Amino acid sequence: MMTFPSLKKLQQSVYHVLKRFPFEMLFAFIATLAAIAYIELESLNYLKESWCKRVIMTAALGVVISLATTLFCESRSIKTSHRLIFNLIAALLTAALFFTFSPLINAADLIRFFLLILAGHLLVAFAAFTKPHAIQGFWQFNKTLFLHFLTSILYSAALYAGIAAAIGAMNLLFSVDFKYDTFYILWVCITGIFNTVFFLSGIPGDFSKLNQDFSYPKGLKIFTQYVLIPLATIYVVILLAYELKILIQWRLPKGLVSNLILGYAVFGILSLLLIFPIREKAENKWIKTFARTFYFLMLPLLLLLFIALGTRINLYGFTEPRYFLTLLACWLLFITLYFLLSKKQNIKVIPISLFVLTLLSIYGPQSAFSVSTYSQKNILLQIFKDNHALQAGKMVRINKISKKNGEKAVATLEYLIGHNDFDVLQPYVTEDLKAVSDSLSKIKDSYGHLSTSRYDILDKKMRWIISYFGLKKFSGHRFYFDQADQQEKHYILEIAEPEVKVITGYDFMIDQAYIDFIDTYKHYTIDHISVETETKKEGILQIRLNNELAVFNVNELISKLMKQEPKLKPYLQKPNHDDPPQYTLPPSLLSFTKKTKNFTVTLELKTIQFSMNESQKINYQGYTTGVYLVKKR
């Protein structure tokens, strides 16, 4: 049964935490304040939002790095004065990371942050157990952390639900105007302050005592034996059957196989870690059998994983996800061989080796970002070389390129600029990309505001670089080009319609709230009349009334109107510079009537969005609404 702590116990816990973990709480407080500022500034000031994000990222790292430092110092019985110096050094190193983060410009910095957070948590797992042996204490410590972490989440969620319900009741009963962001701020305060204090209060302090603690929760064994191990068994049976299928059909493995192998590895290793302390007991001899079987079965699966990864890397080069999958595959091979060949069976090898590999993947020429950038740059340069657009080591405008290579070039440029900014392309172009970037950052939107969000900046840079290399027609709909830059012109036609409209002369109306031009079909029965509406192809609508067909060619109507575009100028609305021309027309110009044997049908279009090329051919019809007005003859 769950019991909540008393106020006195909570006060003592807070005092104990502040005394034992002052730096951790300082960073948690800073992160909470920055998160609140971020909530208040969201969509108001993108530049200040970026600063808030950087502070949150830095402070979050500060919590885990300071915690690892404190645990290390306590395990080594370092004096309080010296411990303060260690914590100050850790805090300064963490603060220095603030100046390396630039999430507004560089997407790779977000990945670096999550990798550093992962490395910090792995460091916390073994920081207090860097001395040889002490494996039992290491297991008990991490078991306690894990269970206390789950408890802290439960307490925080319960506290948030209670206070949020009270705020909602005040809004309802007393008409107090608490805005939606109040609930976000409440959640930030609870997770940033309460949850941190509660979690830190449960961290063991006597590490030597943990080495003598051989208690084991029976629930863990049941969970492992009847949930995790069966799941791992299901995964391995599927994978071995699939591997046999590959050998019979002699086909390359599909990409999904990587996820299945990693799933098997996670369930298997987690199972072995959870039951590690009881592996030597006589009644648990099956554990050693399961462990050796698990690692032996990993070998053919890892071979399959390396083949799947090698195939995709050979075709598409390295990206961060493929780099991390390759790194995980190498790590799994190392862990498998270690536990198959080593007699020590030291489980501390798992977090320590993963911590080292995580650090190596963050910075340096061997990092995920350097390897991926190098690989994608080579792919881009090869595309330009194959299409005679690489001159003296510089990429120039491409005059002729296939659709496949053009789309691949655009996707590669988007990856390189999104993850590394313009700088990565500077050695291969003659333009000063820093000056271009500065110029683009000064362009204001239609409301006169500077667009400084990461997505707006990326969009501007991609539009510029795609135009520079002559690749606009391969960008699809991912980037919006100004009307002057497009080979197609976009239009919006609508009718001027009052809010209340009297309809006479018809028997019934069928509202078409959204007309989908991709072969849609609807059926109605109105006053014993069978009504079917259908679109056979883009621009052609038809309605069938008791098997009497009326066909409406919307393309013809639009073409006739746009051939007289100069005459439509009185109906042109004043657009923003980024918006397509919008005409508000009399209903008669967007209506046409068809007659069948027993019915007269009028299609009245209310709104239609479309694009036309230079030869006045309609290439695309987007959002369209209208009504069918039906009269019996």
Give the helices and strands, then pairings.
Layout: H1 7-20, H2 22-41, H3 46-75, H4 80-96, H5 108-126, H6 135-174, H7 181-201, H8 207-211, H9 218-249, H10 256-274, H11 285-316, H12 320-341, H13 349-360, H14 368-386, E1 390-391, E2 394-395, H15 403-420, H16 433-441, H17 454-468, E3 489-495, E4 508-512, E5 521-526, E6 529-537, E7 540-545, E8 548-553, H18 554-563, E9 582-585, E10 591-595, E11 599-612, E12 618-632
Helix pairs in contact: 1-7, 2-3, 2-7, 3-4, 3-5, 5-13, 6-7, 9-10, 9-11, 10-11, 11-12, 14-15, 15-17
Task: Explain what this protein looks like in three dimensions.
The structure is a single chain. Helices cover 56% and strands 13% of the residues. The chain has 633 residues and is α+β, with helices and mostly antiparallel strands. The strands form three sheets. Strands 3, 4, 9, 10, 11 and 12 form a six-stranded mixed beta sheet that branches. A four-stranded antiparallel beta sheet has the order 5-6-7-8.
